[in-house]
Amino acid sequence: MTVSSFLLLFFGGLVAGIIGAMLGLGGGVFLIPFLALVMGVPMHQAIATSIIAVIATSSAGAALNVERRTVNVRLGMLLETATVTGAIVGGVTASLLSGATLARIFSVLMVLVASIMAWRVLNPRTGEDSSIEGAPGEQFYDEKSGTTISYTVRRIPAAMAVSLVAGNVSGLLGVGGGIFKVPVMNLLCGVPMKAATATSNFMIGVTAAASAFIYFSEGHVNPTVTSSAVLGVLAGSFAGIWLGRRVNTRMLTWLFIGVLLFVSAELFRRGA
Amino acid sequence: MTNLAQRRNHELWIARILAAGVWISAILLISGLLLTALAGPTGPPVHNPTLHELLIELSSGDFFAGRVSTGITIIYFGLIALILTPFFRVLTAGLTFAVERDWRYVIVSTLILFALVGELVFTYH
After folding, report:
1. pLDDT for A95-144, tens place per residue?
2. Sign of torsion, CA A61 A66 A68 A69?
């Protein structure tokens, strides 16, 4: 691998990590098209790289969030029973599909992600839900408001059903699945957004690990490509956390939605 | 069940495991890339080894002089360390639940671990 290739891969991972950390995504929706369209990496290798990068961002972010006590570890583990199952099925399925087919499915996912992001920008959740229902729940100290937020968790079976699907998408397409998991926990389970994001971040690493060895065993992990991109994603994640506190993400979100739609069309065209 | 403060202390161990896994992996990846760069071109690119092929290569002792160079080997160790971090995350969570005598979540953690290890064994070829 040449120095220029390393720098390009590192830069691609860096941007993916920054965008992911600032917008609450794993970065896979940017990283995979970058690897496939710009670097010419075969689709299965791009997905394998993204899967491992998701583990990196999840582990780095989760370490911080667990320490800050915003992660609902019990809820995350409960939903993981469904997500891991879905991820294993997704990973096995991906090994049976061609790269072109995966590219087309991924382009559809990008449109879905763009739609969800647009909906979230147009329907912001203001303030945190806080209630003490009497049933066992969870609580965390919110630094921004200076209060302790308590909440109860509802509709676990429905959340597990959606988690199964999210895990399947993760294993099949190499994304973290947080774009589905966060709304599920927030809207279905009644978990405050900050805790839902932190818990999702905690979960996506385990979900990705469930399918990572499948890609490894199929020989889809390119060591120099993956390591370069993963190091960039790690650096970008930390930079994104720092930038996220200083930059208005609303404009960035709309810009990213536009990029997602454009790249989706290009990826679909290439897959034809 | 133990009190909230004790649970929080247990969860800090999970945070430490995660951070340690990331740092160990990053160091190995950087070291491997540097060694690979210093080694220079090593001939025609070989296919990406499967996990099985990688372990056979390592067990034969030829990884310093064989198809898989030292730098590439260290990179693979770094990637495997990173992939295993969530495994240890689940294991640590299960152990903390056991200390707290929260047996329901011990079972949940065990199920997840079985699924992860089972997938590893099933796909190893």
Report:
1. 888 888 888 888 888 888 888 878 877 877 644 444 433 333 566 656 55
2. positive
Q: Work out the minimum CA distance from A262 to partner chain B, whole angstroms.
A: 31
For A136-174, write each residue's pLDDT tens digit. 356 665 655 666 667 777 788 888 888 888 888 888 888
- Name the residue of chain A whose CA is nearest to B89's CA: A206
| Tokens 């990572």 found at | A212
Stated pTM of the model = 0.83
A213 with B76: Cβ contact below 8 A:
no
Two tokens at A142?
């919110």
Distance of CA A157 to the CA centre of its chain: 22
CA separation for the pair A41, A13 (Å, rounded): 14
* Closest to A132 measured CA to CA, from A196, A76, A190: A190
Tell me which amino acid residue B41 is: P
So what's the pLDDT on residue A66? 65
**Nearest of A160, A270, A171 to residue A213 by alpha carbon:** A171
From B29, B44, B26, B35, select the one nearest B69 (Cα to Cα): B35
SS3 per-residue string spanning A209-238 = HHHHHHHHHCCCCCHHHHHHHHHHHHHHHH
Q: Map tokens 């905690």 to a residue.
A: A202
Q: How far apart are CA A66 and CA B9, in angstroms?
A: 10
CB B36 within 8 A of CB B72: yes
- Asked if B111 is an interface residue toward chain A (Cβ–Cβ < 8 A), one would say yes
Within an 8 Å CB–CB cutoff, is residue B95 touching chain A?
no
Give CA–CA dist A100/A112, Å, rounded.
Answer: 19
B15 pLDDT above the threshold of 80: no
The SS3 call for residue A152 is strand
At CA A207, angle to CA A237 and CA A135, rounded to 5?
Answer: 100
Question: What does the pLDDT average to over A68-86?
Answer: 84
Chain A residues touching residue B75 (CB < 8 angstroms)? 223-224, 226-227
For the record, the structure tokens of A3 come out as: 């120095």
CA distance A12 to B21: 23
Terminal-to-terminal C-alpha distance of chain A: 29
